[in-house]
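Components:
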Amino acid sequence: MPELPEVEVICQGLRPHLTNRIITTIYYSGKPLRHPVPFAAMDEMLCGQTISTITRRAKYLLIATKDGTPSRSCAAPDARDTRPSLAVIIIHLGMTGNLGLFPLAAPIKTHDHVRWQLDNGLELRLNDSRRFGGVWLLPPEQARNLETGFFAGTGPEPFSNLCTPAYFMAIAQKREQPIKTFLMDSKVVAGIGNIYANEALMAAGIHPARKACTLQEHHWQRLIPVIRTILTQAIACGGSTISDFINANGERGYFQMNFQVYGRKNQPCHQCGSLIEKIQISGRASYFCPHCQHG
DNA sequence: CAAGTTACCTGACGGC
DNA sequence: TGCCGTCAGGTAACTT
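Structure:
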Protein backbone atom coordinates (compact mmCIF):
# COMPACT_ATOMS: atom_id res chain seq x y z
CA MET A 1 0.00 0.00 0.00
CA PRO A 2 2.93 2.15 -0.04
CA GLU A 3 3.94 5.29 -1.67
CA LEU A 4 5.68 7.91 0.38
CA PRO A 5 2.53 9.26 2.07
CA GLU A 6 1.35 5.86 3.21
CA VAL A 7 4.72 4.99 4.68
CA GLU A 8 4.87 8.38 6.38
CA VAL A 9 1.41 7.87 7.86
CA ILE A 10 2.38 4.47 9.17
CA CYS A 11 5.58 5.94 10.54
CA GLN A 12 3.76 8.71 12.40
CA GLY A 13 1.09 6.30 13.60
CA LEU A 14 3.61 3.85 15.00
CA ARG A 15 5.91 6.39 16.59
CA PRO A 16 4.06 7.06 19.87
CA HIS A 17 3.38 3.35 20.37
CA LEU A 18 6.86 2.05 19.60
CA THR A 19 9.11 4.70 21.09
CA ASN A 20 10.85 3.41 24.23
CA ARG A 21 9.20 -0.01 23.94
CA ILE A 22 11.30 -3.09 24.43
CA ILE A 23 11.20 -5.82 21.81
CA THR A 24 10.63 -9.05 23.68
CA THR A 25 10.15 -11.76 21.08
CA ILE A 26 10.21 -11.98 17.30
CA TYR A 27 8.27 -14.41 15.16
CA TYR A 28 8.72 -15.20 11.49
CA SER A 29 6.51 -17.15 9.10
CA GLY A 30 9.52 -18.60 7.32
CA LYS A 31 8.33 -17.39 3.94
CA PRO A 32 10.88 -15.36 2.01
CA LEU A 33 10.01 -11.79 1.09
CA ARG A 34 11.82 -10.04 -1.76
CA HIS A 35 15.04 -10.80 0.08
CA PRO A 36 15.77 -13.33 2.79
CA VAL A 37 14.40 -12.10 6.13
CA PRO A 38 17.26 -11.80 8.64
CA PHE A 39 15.33 -13.56 11.35
CA ALA A 40 18.28 -15.15 13.13
CA ALA A 41 20.14 -11.85 13.27
CA MET A 42 17.07 -10.00 14.52
CA ASP A 43 16.41 -12.64 17.12
CA GLU A 44 19.99 -12.34 18.29
CA MET A 45 20.39 -8.58 18.17
CA LEU A 46 16.98 -7.16 18.97
CA CYS A 47 15.31 -9.14 21.70
CA GLY A 48 15.55 -7.13 24.90
CA GLN A 49 16.49 -3.95 23.04
CA THR A 50 14.67 -0.67 23.39
CA ILE A 51 13.25 1.06 20.34
CA SER A 52 14.51 4.61 20.08
CA THR A 53 13.31 6.21 16.86
CA ILE A 54 10.94 5.49 13.99
CA THR A 55 11.67 7.35 10.78
CA ARG A 56 11.04 7.15 7.07
CA ARG A 57 13.42 7.44 4.13
CA ALA A 58 11.97 7.07 0.62
CA LYS A 59 9.40 4.29 0.96
CA TYR A 60 11.36 2.56 3.70
CA LEU A 61 10.51 2.60 7.39
CA LEU A 62 13.45 2.67 9.79
CA ILE A 63 13.18 1.43 13.35
CA ALA A 64 16.28 2.14 15.41
CA THR A 65 17.15 0.51 18.70
CA LYS A 66 19.03 2.19 21.50
CA ASP A 67 21.75 -0.37 21.69
CA GLY A 68 22.92 -2.59 18.90
CA THR A 69 24.84 -5.03 21.03
CA PRO A 70 23.33 -8.38 21.96
CA SER A 71 21.37 -7.80 25.12
CA ARG A 72 20.71 -11.30 26.34
CA SER A 73 24.00 -11.06 28.14
CA CYS A 74 22.97 -7.86 29.91
CA ALA A 75 19.46 -8.50 31.10
CA ALA A 76 19.44 -5.51 33.43
CA PRO A 77 19.47 -2.35 31.30
CA ASP A 78 21.87 0.23 32.60
CA ALA A 79 20.28 3.68 32.69
CA ARG A 80 23.69 5.27 32.37
CA ASP A 81 24.40 3.41 29.17
CA THR A 82 24.66 6.14 26.60
CA ARG A 83 26.40 4.14 23.93
CA PRO A 84 25.29 5.73 20.66
CA SER A 85 25.37 2.57 18.62
CA LEU A 86 22.06 1.82 16.96
CA ALA A 87 20.96 -1.22 15.07
CA VAL A 88 18.27 -0.39 12.55
CA ILE A 89 15.43 -2.48 11.22
CA ILE A 90 14.50 -1.40 7.71
CA ILE A 91 11.10 -2.36 6.36
CA HIS A 92 9.76 -1.97 2.85
CA LEU A 93 6.12 -2.71 2.13
CA GLY A 94 6.37 -3.63 -1.54
CA MET A 95 2.99 -3.53 -3.26
CA THR A 96 0.78 -5.10 -0.64
CA GLY A 97 2.63 -4.77 2.64
CA ASN A 98 1.03 -3.36 5.75
CA LEU A 99 2.24 -2.76 9.26
CA GLY A 100 -0.11 -2.70 12.21
CA LEU A 101 -0.06 -2.91 15.98
CA PHE A 102 -2.19 -5.63 17.50
CA PRO A 103 -2.87 -7.05 20.94
CA LEU A 104 -0.97 -10.30 21.35
CA ALA A 105 -4.25 -12.20 21.47
CA ALA A 106 -5.51 -10.81 18.16
CA PRO A 107 -5.83 -13.66 15.65
CA ILE A 108 -2.93 -14.08 13.26
CA LYS A 109 -3.90 -13.38 9.66
CA THR A 110 -2.78 -15.10 6.52
CA HIS A 111 0.41 -13.43 5.30
CA ASP A 112 1.42 -12.09 8.71
CA HIS A 113 5.09 -12.80 8.05
CA VAL A 114 7.01 -11.03 10.79
CA ARG A 115 5.82 -10.11 14.27
CA TRP A 116 7.81 -8.04 16.73
CA GLN A 117 6.34 -8.58 20.17
CA LEU A 118 6.66 -5.65 22.58
CA ASP A 119 6.67 -5.19 26.34
CA ASN A 120 3.30 -3.41 26.39
CA GLY A 121 1.09 -6.27 25.32
CA LEU A 122 1.12 -5.30 21.66
CA GLU A 123 2.99 -6.59 18.68
CA LEU A 124 3.97 -5.02 15.40
CA ARG A 125 2.85 -7.21 12.51
CA LEU A 126 4.07 -7.13 8.94
CA ASN A 127 1.44 -8.53 6.61
CA ASP A 128 2.30 -8.83 2.93
CA SER A 129 0.34 -11.11 0.63
CA ARG A 130 2.48 -10.71 -2.47
CA ARG A 131 5.74 -10.70 -0.52
CA PHE A 132 7.31 -7.96 -2.61
CA GLY A 133 8.28 -6.19 0.58
CA GLY A 134 11.45 -6.66 2.55
CA VAL A 135 13.03 -6.56 5.98
CA TRP A 136 16.66 -5.77 6.62
CA LEU A 137 18.68 -5.50 9.80
CA LEU A 138 21.62 -3.15 9.76
CA PRO A 139 24.19 -3.59 12.49
CA PRO A 140 25.44 -0.41 14.21
CA GLU A 141 28.31 0.36 11.89
CA GLN A 142 26.04 0.20 8.84
CA ALA A 143 23.21 1.93 10.65
CA ARG A 144 25.42 4.91 11.29
CA ASN A 145 26.12 5.43 7.61
CA LEU A 146 22.76 5.00 5.95
CA GLU A 147 23.10 7.67 3.30
CA THR A 148 26.42 6.41 2.06
CA GLY A 149 25.44 2.78 2.59
CA PHE A 150 21.94 1.39 2.36
CA PHE A 151 20.56 4.52 0.71
CA ALA A 152 23.52 5.28 -1.50
CA GLY A 153 21.99 5.76 -4.90
CA THR A 154 18.61 6.80 -3.53
CA GLY A 155 17.64 10.27 -4.65
CA PRO A 156 16.74 13.10 -2.29
CA GLU A 157 13.42 13.34 -0.52
CA PRO A 158 10.88 15.41 -2.46
CA PHE A 159 10.76 17.89 0.43
CA SER A 160 14.53 18.28 0.48
CA ASN A 161 15.97 21.58 -0.61
CA LEU A 162 18.21 19.54 -2.87
CA CYS A 163 15.18 19.20 -5.14
CA THR A 164 15.59 22.29 -7.27
CA PRO A 165 14.82 22.89 -10.94
CA ALA A 166 18.56 22.91 -11.59
CA TYR A 167 18.97 19.51 -9.92
CA PHE A 168 16.25 17.88 -11.98
CA MET A 169 17.24 19.58 -15.23
CA ALA A 170 20.84 18.44 -14.91
CA ILE A 171 19.72 14.81 -14.73
CA ALA A 172 16.81 15.09 -17.15
CA GLN A 173 19.13 16.55 -19.76
CA LYS A 174 20.16 13.04 -20.80
CA ARG A 175 16.80 11.39 -20.36
CA GLU A 176 14.62 10.70 -23.36
CA GLN A 177 12.17 8.84 -21.13
CA PRO A 178 8.69 10.14 -20.24
CA ILE A 179 8.57 12.62 -17.39
CA LYS A 180 6.29 10.27 -15.47
CA THR A 181 8.86 7.48 -15.57
CA PHE A 182 11.54 10.00 -14.60
CA LEU A 183 9.59 11.10 -11.51
CA MET A 184 9.15 7.48 -10.47
CA ASP A 185 12.90 6.79 -10.68
CA SER A 186 13.97 6.49 -7.05
CA LYS A 187 17.54 7.33 -8.01
CA VAL A 188 16.31 10.75 -9.14
CA VAL A 189 13.89 11.52 -6.33
CA ALA A 190 12.65 9.23 -3.58
CA GLY A 191 9.16 8.13 -2.77
CA ILE A 192 7.07 9.05 -5.80
CA GLY A 193 5.13 6.05 -7.04
CA ASN A 194 2.58 5.51 -9.74
CA ILE A 195 -0.36 7.25 -8.10
CA TYR A 196 1.39 10.46 -7.18
CA ALA A 197 3.38 10.68 -10.40
CA ASN A 198 0.03 10.69 -12.20
CA GLU A 199 -1.55 13.17 -9.81
CA ALA A 200 1.39 15.57 -9.72
CA LEU A 201 1.59 15.77 -13.50
CA MET A 202 -2.11 16.48 -13.68
CA ALA A 203 -1.80 19.24 -11.09
CA ALA A 204 1.14 20.72 -12.99
CA GLY A 205 -0.63 20.47 -16.35
CA ILE A 206 2.14 18.36 -17.88
CA HIS A 207 1.47 15.39 -20.15
CA PRO A 208 2.90 12.24 -18.55
CA ALA A 209 4.47 11.01 -21.80
CA ARG A 210 6.37 14.20 -22.45
CA LYS A 211 10.11 13.58 -22.58
CA ALA A 212 11.84 14.53 -19.35
CA CYS A 213 14.57 16.39 -21.21
CA THR A 214 12.09 18.80 -22.78
CA LEU A 215 10.86 20.31 -19.53
CA GLN A 216 11.92 23.91 -19.13
CA GLU A 217 12.79 25.66 -15.89
CA HIS A 218 9.29 27.06 -15.54
CA HIS A 219 7.87 23.54 -15.72
CA TRP A 220 10.04 22.44 -12.84
CA GLN A 221 9.21 25.56 -10.90
CA ARG A 222 5.59 24.52 -11.12
CA LEU A 223 6.07 20.77 -10.72
CA ILE A 224 8.26 20.72 -7.60
CA PRO A 225 5.86 22.61 -5.33
CA VAL A 226 2.93 20.68 -6.78
CA ILE A 227 4.60 17.38 -5.85
CA ARG A 228 5.16 18.63 -2.32
CA THR A 229 1.61 19.91 -1.95
CA ILE A 230 0.05 16.67 -3.16
CA LEU A 231 2.23 14.50 -0.95
CA THR A 232 1.47 16.74 2.01
CA GLN A 233 -2.26 16.54 1.37
CA ALA A 234 -2.10 12.78 1.09
CA ILE A 235 -0.22 12.51 4.37
CA ALA A 236 -2.81 14.76 6.00
CA CYS A 237 -5.61 12.52 4.71
CA GLY A 238 -3.93 9.46 6.17
CA GLY A 239 -3.05 11.28 9.34
CA SER A 240 -6.69 11.78 10.12
CA THR A 241 -7.01 8.06 10.71
CA ILE A 242 -3.92 7.65 12.86
CA SER A 243 -5.94 7.58 16.07
CA ASP A 244 -7.33 4.25 14.91
CA PHE A 245 -3.89 2.86 14.46
CA ILE A 246 -4.03 0.02 16.91
CA ASN A 247 -5.89 -2.83 15.32
CA ALA A 248 -6.32 -0.72 12.23
CA ASN A 249 -8.31 -2.62 9.70
CA GLY A 250 -8.04 -2.02 6.02
CA GLU A 251 -8.21 1.39 4.53
CA ARG A 252 -6.12 4.09 5.95
CA GLY A 253 -4.02 6.72 4.30
CA TYR A 254 -4.36 7.71 0.74
CA PHE A 255 -7.42 5.67 -0.06
CA GLN A 256 -9.24 8.67 1.25
CA MET A 257 -7.61 11.05 -1.21
CA ASN A 258 -9.68 12.56 -3.93
CA PHE A 259 -7.74 11.61 -7.00
CA GLN A 260 -7.98 13.87 -10.03
CA VAL A 261 -6.85 11.28 -12.57
CA TYR A 262 -5.61 8.04 -10.99
CA GLY A 263 -8.06 5.22 -11.61
CA ARG A 264 -10.52 7.56 -13.34
CA LYS A 265 -10.42 6.29 -16.94
CA ASN A 266 -13.36 7.65 -18.98
CA GLN A 267 -14.59 9.73 -16.07
CA PRO A 268 -14.94 13.50 -16.48
CA CYS A 269 -12.04 15.72 -15.48
CA HIS A 270 -12.90 17.71 -12.39
CA GLN A 271 -11.40 20.81 -14.01
CA CYS A 272 -12.75 20.76 -17.56
CA GLY A 273 -15.09 17.80 -17.96
CA SER A 274 -12.99 16.07 -20.61
CA LEU A 275 -12.79 12.31 -20.20
CA ILE A 276 -9.68 11.06 -18.40
CA GLU A 277 -7.58 8.79 -20.61
CA LYS A 278 -5.52 5.77 -19.62
CA ILE A 279 -2.35 4.74 -21.43
CA GLN A 280 0.64 2.54 -20.66
CA ILE A 281 3.91 4.31 -19.95
CA SER A 282 6.93 2.15 -19.23
CA GLY A 283 4.53 -0.65 -18.43
CA ARG A 284 2.59 1.30 -15.82
CA ALA A 285 -1.00 2.51 -15.94
CA SER A 286 -0.96 6.22 -16.64
CA TYR A 287 -3.94 8.52 -16.43
CA PHE A 288 -4.23 12.06 -17.71
CA CYS A 289 -6.63 14.72 -18.85
CA PRO A 290 -6.09 15.34 -22.57
CA HIS A 291 -7.26 18.93 -22.19
CA CYS A 292 -5.56 20.02 -18.98
CA GLN A 293 -2.20 18.31 -19.54
CA HIS A 294 -0.68 19.95 -22.59
CA GLY A 295 2.28 21.53 -20.85
C1' DC B 1 24.91 4.63 -19.90
C1' DA B 2 19.80 4.81 -20.95
C1' DA B 3 15.56 2.49 -21.39
C1' DG B 4 12.64 -1.32 -22.04
C1' DT B 5 11.23 -6.06 -20.39
C1' DT B 6 10.74 -9.64 -17.14
C1' DA B 7 10.33 -11.62 -12.77
C1' DC B 8 9.00 -11.89 -8.20
C1' DC B 9 3.82 -13.31 -5.69
C1' DT B 10 -1.20 -13.33 -4.32
C1' DG B 11 -5.82 -11.67 -4.68
C1' DA B 12 -9.64 -9.11 -6.72
C1' DC B 13 -12.49 -8.56 -10.49
C1' DG B 14 -14.90 -9.12 -14.95
C1' DG B 15 -16.37 -12.11 -18.69
C1' DC B 16 -18.11 -16.36 -20.00
C1' DT C 1 -20.50 -21.60 -9.00
C1' DG C 2 -16.16 -21.79 -11.22
C1' DC C 3 -12.56 -21.16 -14.51
C1' DC C 4 -9.59 -17.91 -16.91
C1' DG C 5 -7.38 -13.81 -18.18
C1' DT C 6 -6.04 -9.29 -16.62
C1' DC C 7 -4.56 -6.10 -13.49
C1' DA C 8 -2.54 -4.09 -9.10
C1' DG C 9 0.38 1.11 -4.97
C1' DG C 10 7.42 -1.59 -6.19
C1' DT C 11 11.99 -2.83 -7.18
C1' DA C 12 15.84 -5.00 -9.29
C1' DA C 13 17.91 -8.11 -12.47
C1' DC C 14 18.12 -8.71 -16.95
C1' DT C 15 18.47 -7.47 -22.13
C1' DT C 16 18.83 -4.36 -25.94
